[in-house]
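Hi Prof. W.,

I finally got the TatD family hydrolase prediction working! I wasn't sure whether to trim anything, so I left the full sequence exactly as given:
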Amino acid sequence: MQQWIDVHCHLNMLEEGVDAAIQNAKAAGVRRLITIGTEPGDFQTVLDIAHKYYPEVYCTLGVHPHDGKVYTAEIGKFIEEHVSDPVVAAIGEIGLDYYYDQSPREEQKEAFRAQLEIAKRTKMPVQIHTRDADEDTVAILKEFKGQVTGIIHCFTGTEMLARESLDLGFNISLSGVLTFKNADSLRAIAKMLPLDRIHVETDSPFLAPIPMRGKKNTPAYVVHTAKFVAELKGVSEEQLAEQTKLNALKMFPKIQW
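And this is what came out:
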């Protein structure tokens, strides 16, 4: 059985419960998981989950663009003080979301830059959320060129965003969206991505891949997205599993395998 890593999931949001999700993931061949912090209210929860299930589970700490308006220097201090914890694999998810605009765009940008500054100081990778904000995302990342690296999670952007992100040293993480019927343009971009720069993820409980569409997503389902990616890229599942493992271990050095 291939061994996978789900680089982006939300274990604290899963209806099946954390323990069941991890056991089901292991049964499917998912060896490592990164559960994501999105706002101050869940930081301690994701830390506790990661500590309980370490070294199979790691976490991130970050303020999602939806919550950019609540970001403060005090929250940034909490993140910076905890990134040295062995279970914290990255800062995230951070970025810009102009689709929902749940926080004013200027406040999203301020929170994004502030957290990239933390990543720069602490030499931590980041997980980036960007939706309908390609140009501003690239512009801000260029301010940190050569100083911050990470992944563009659940990539759904343009070819421009993909190429600029790769040029800036970022990798691309592919989710179940790639399997959706209306994702032809995304599949075209995925086909051009270098194998050594991609990851697979679920973003569970969201965006379950075909053939699980309509169900609540769970880390075990990353194998369906991975199978689709392997076919799209013309490689075996074994090759993709090994390559995405190597990519993850390089991008997130704290992960023990």
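The longest strand covers residues 88-97. Does that look reasonable to you?

Thanks,
D.
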